[in-house]
Every structure is written in C-alpha cells, then in structure tokens.
UniProtKB/TrEMBL annotation:
Signal sequence region: 1-24
Species, as recorded: Acinetobacter qingfengensis
Name used for this protein in its record: Toluene tolerance protein
Keywords: Signal
Pfam family name, one: MlaC
Length: 211
C-alpha cells in the first residue's frame, strides 16, 4: 500500500472515531426536559384524580405521559444484560422481550401513580458535565411528607431526551430488573425464550427495598 493511501486510511479512521465520539445534545436542557414531563404528568393526575382507581384511566395517563419519553430499547438492553446479544437471543426474541417489558412497565407505573394524593417534587441543582447520559435529580414528596430522591438518567434519541434508566432512593431499576430476569432464565433451566415469555418485573420487590 502506498504511503499516501496509508495516510488517507488512517485519516478516515480517525475522522470516523472522532465523529462517533462527538455528542450533539438536544436543544432542551436535561432539567427542563424532566420538569416539563413531570409537570405534564402531575397535571394529568390532578385532572383525573377521582378516576385513578380505574385501570383504563391510569394506564392511558402512563401511555400518554411517560411511555413516549422512555428509551425503551436502551432500557431493554440494560435489563437483558448479557442476553441482549446474538450469542443468546435473536432480534425477534429481543423484540418480544421489549414488547413484554413495555407492557409490564406501564402496569408498574400505573400501580404506583394510582396512589397519587397531590404530592409534589423539587428539582435539585443540575451540574452539566457534558455527559452523553446526563442525570437529573429530583425529590418527590411522599404522602407522609418525606422526600424520595429520584435520579433520571437520560439519553439523546433523534435530538430529543429520553429516559434511559431510573434510580429511586439508591435503587437502580434497570440493575434490579436485570437480576430478576437473570433469575427467571435460571428458573427456566436456561431457556431464554421461556424466560422472555414469562418475565414480569417485580415492582413490589423494588418498593420493599426502598421502604
């Protein structure tokens, strides 16, 4: 290979690496994004407070106000862990897991929001670290007046922020659900397909850890 071709190849590779490391953040700041979706959610909860015991109503609120802002694919990858690879699963299996996990998450959020009783929240001061996955911290006020710290880890998808993971009172939801899924695989004798079909995130176990 001629020297000029080697230089050209090296330059091209360097340019490709540089472009892959360049992060163009959405125009909306991370705390502004979290505040916007939190305010929209609370507004919907207040407007439908008398009907929050209705599963159809609360599921609709979650589907409209939370689901569109979650990076389900990244969340799925975190939860599946080692099984999110061609070594263990096919694209079709991962797609099925994503759908099952999405439906379970909607029910999980709905169960928690059904207990809403006019609680509010406070945004913590945000420190911009120029990270591709920034974290925004808020403190939710519980019904008994105590504060529940919640950290939203974000990810940019198509120039918009999406929620990649959530940490509640020090409990990493993706890591917790990953442990649950791994246990489900083991309970099914290593049959990942059966585990995918039967897996349901155990939100009650998470709540017990928090309390």
């Amino acid at each position: 290979m001629a020297v000029s071709n080697k230089v050209l190849l090296a330059t091209s590779v360097a340019s490709l690496l540089a472009s892959s490391l360049t992060f163009a953040a959405p125009s909306e700041t991370p705390p502004a994004f979290v505040k916007r979706i939190s305010d929209q959610l609370i507004t919907q909860l207040k407007q439908n407070k008398a009907q929050l015991n209705n599963a159809a109503v609360i599921n609709r609120i979650v589907a409209q106000n939370i689901e569109p802002h979650v990076d389900v694919q990244s969340f799925t990858r975190l939860v599946m862990g080692q099984y999110y690879s061609n070594q263990y699963t096919t694209p079709a299996q991962r797609g099925q897991f994503t759908q099952n996990f999405r439906d379970s998450i909607i029910r999980t959020y709905a169960k928690g929001l059904g207990k809403y009783s006019n609680e509010g929240y406070t945004l913590r001061p945000y420190k911009n670290t120029n990270s591709a996955t920034p974290v925004v911290m808020i403190d939710f006020k519980s019904a008994n007046g105590s504060k529940i710290p919640v950290a939203f880890q974000l990810n940019a998808v198509n120039d918009q922020w999406k929620i990649r993971n959530i940490n509640v009172s020090g409990i990493d939801l993706a890591a917790t659900f990953r442990d649950q899924f791994k246990a489900t695989v083991q309970q099914n004798g290593g049959n990942v397909n059966k585990a995918i079909a039967s897996f349901k995130p155990n939100a009650d176990a998470v709540e017990k850890k928090i309390n």
